[in-house]
Design a protein that fits this description.
- By secondary structure, this protein is an alpha+beta fold.
- It has 4 helices and 4 strands.
- The protein has a 4-stranded antiparallel beta sheet, with helices on one face.
- It starts with a helix and ends with a strand.
Amino acid sequence: MAESLSENCSKVAFTESSFDPPDWFGRFLFSFERDVALAFPIGSDAAVLKDWLAEERFGFYGMSYLESAFVDEPDESSRTSERIKNDQRINLASSSWNTICGGISFSVGWVENSCAAISEICADVEYCQFDLP
Protein backbone atom coordinates (compact mmCIF):
# COMPACT_ATOMS: atom_id res chain seq x y z
CA MET A 1 0.00 0.00 0.00
CA ALA A 2 1.35 3.43 -0.95
CA GLU A 3 1.95 5.99 1.76
CA SER A 4 0.31 9.37 1.45
CA LEU A 5 2.37 12.54 1.21
CA SER A 6 1.46 13.54 4.76
CA GLU A 7 2.60 10.14 6.05
CA ASN A 8 5.89 10.53 4.19
CA CYS A 9 6.35 14.03 5.54
CA SER A 10 5.76 12.92 9.12
CA LYS A 11 8.88 10.77 8.79
CA VAL A 12 11.04 13.68 7.63
CA ALA A 13 13.64 14.87 10.10
CA PHE A 14 14.55 18.45 9.32
CA THR A 15 18.23 19.30 9.14
CA GLU A 16 19.28 21.31 12.17
CA SER A 17 21.89 24.05 12.01
CA SER A 18 24.14 25.01 14.89
CA PHE A 19 24.80 28.31 13.12
CA ASP A 20 22.73 31.34 14.13
CA PRO A 21 21.06 33.45 11.43
CA PRO A 22 22.72 36.79 10.66
CA ASP A 23 21.96 39.54 13.13
CA TRP A 24 20.82 42.92 11.90
CA PHE A 25 24.16 44.69 12.00
CA GLY A 26 27.48 42.89 11.92
CA ARG A 27 26.86 39.74 9.95
CA PHE A 28 24.21 41.34 7.73
CA LEU A 29 26.87 43.70 6.45
CA PHE A 30 29.89 41.43 6.30
CA SER A 31 28.84 37.84 5.61
CA PHE A 32 25.11 37.80 4.86
CA GLU A 33 25.24 35.46 1.86
CA ARG A 34 27.36 32.82 3.61
CA ASP A 35 25.59 33.06 6.96
CA VAL A 36 22.06 32.63 5.56
CA ALA A 37 23.10 29.42 3.80
CA LEU A 38 24.80 28.14 6.97
CA ALA A 39 21.87 29.01 9.25
CA PHE A 40 19.23 27.50 6.92
CA PRO A 41 20.88 24.52 5.20
CA ILE A 42 19.23 22.29 2.61
CA GLY A 43 16.77 20.05 4.42
CA SER A 44 15.98 22.52 7.20
CA ASP A 45 12.46 23.64 8.11
CA ALA A 46 11.26 26.40 5.75
CA ALA A 47 8.94 27.72 8.50
CA VAL A 48 12.00 28.62 10.60
CA LEU A 49 13.43 30.60 7.67
CA LYS A 50 10.10 32.38 7.11
CA ASP A 51 9.86 33.27 10.81
CA TRP A 52 13.36 34.74 10.74
CA LEU A 53 12.59 36.73 7.58
CA ALA A 54 9.44 38.16 9.19
CA GLU A 55 11.34 38.97 12.39
CA GLU A 56 13.98 40.81 10.36
CA ARG A 57 11.23 42.67 8.44
CA PHE A 58 11.86 41.21 5.01
CA GLY A 59 9.07 41.73 2.52
CA PHE A 60 7.85 38.60 0.76
CA TYR A 61 7.55 39.12 -2.99
CA GLY A 62 6.08 35.74 -3.76
CA MET A 63 7.23 33.29 -6.39
CA SER A 64 9.71 34.60 -8.94
CA TYR A 65 12.19 33.44 -11.54
CA LEU A 66 14.69 35.73 -9.80
CA GLU A 67 16.48 34.55 -6.68
CA SER A 68 17.68 38.01 -5.69
CA ALA A 69 16.73 41.64 -6.10
CA PHE A 70 19.64 42.14 -8.53
CA VAL A 71 20.74 39.40 -10.89
CA ASP A 72 24.25 40.59 -11.62
CA GLU A 73 26.56 37.61 -11.15
CA PRO A 74 27.16 34.89 -13.77
CA ASP A 75 25.87 32.05 -11.56
CA GLU A 76 22.70 34.02 -10.70
CA SER A 77 22.11 34.73 -14.39
CA SER A 78 22.61 31.08 -15.26
CA ARG A 79 20.19 29.84 -12.59
CA THR A 80 17.62 32.49 -13.57
CA SER A 81 17.84 31.44 -17.24
CA GLU A 82 17.31 27.78 -16.24
CA ARG A 83 14.28 28.71 -14.13
CA ILE A 84 12.72 30.67 -16.99
CA LYS A 85 13.42 27.86 -19.45
CA ASN A 86 11.89 25.25 -17.10
CA ASP A 87 9.12 27.55 -15.81
CA GLN A 88 10.29 27.03 -12.21
CA ARG A 89 9.91 29.77 -9.65
CA ILE A 90 11.60 30.45 -6.33
CA ASN A 91 10.28 32.23 -3.22
CA LEU A 92 11.81 35.68 -2.88
CA ALA A 93 12.02 37.98 0.14
CA SER A 94 13.90 41.26 0.30
CA SER A 95 14.81 44.04 2.69
CA SER A 96 16.45 47.41 2.07
CA TRP A 97 18.25 49.91 4.26
CA ASN A 98 18.96 53.53 3.38
CA THR A 99 22.48 54.66 4.24
CA ILE A 100 24.70 57.63 3.49
CA CYS A 101 26.16 55.77 0.50
CA GLY A 102 22.74 54.83 -0.92
CA GLY A 103 20.52 51.83 -0.43
CA ILE A 104 21.63 48.37 0.68
CA SER A 105 19.41 45.52 -0.50
CA PHE A 106 19.32 42.06 1.06
CA SER A 107 17.57 39.20 -0.74
CA VAL A 108 16.80 35.61 0.16
CA GLY A 109 15.47 33.14 -2.38
CA TRP A 110 14.43 29.61 -1.49
CA VAL A 111 12.55 26.57 -2.70
CA GLU A 112 10.72 24.33 -0.28
CA ASN A 113 9.69 20.80 -1.11
CA SER A 114 6.27 19.23 -0.50
CA CYS A 115 7.26 18.47 3.11
CA ALA A 116 8.17 22.14 3.80
CA ALA A 117 11.91 21.47 3.88
CA ILE A 118 14.31 23.85 2.12
CA SER A 119 15.58 22.25 -1.09
CA GLU A 120 17.42 25.32 -2.44
CA ILE A 121 18.50 28.58 -0.82
CA CYS A 122 20.29 31.68 -2.11
CA ALA A 123 21.14 34.95 -0.42
CA ASP A 124 22.46 38.15 -1.93
CA VAL A 125 23.40 41.65 -0.83
CA GLU A 126 23.88 44.72 -2.99
CA TYR A 127 25.65 47.72 -1.49
CA CYS A 128 25.14 51.41 -2.24
CA GLN A 129 22.35 51.26 -4.80
CA PHE A 130 21.11 54.71 -5.85
CA ASP A 131 17.72 55.58 -7.27
CA LEU A 132 18.30 57.85 -10.24
CA PRO A 133 15.67 60.42 -11.13
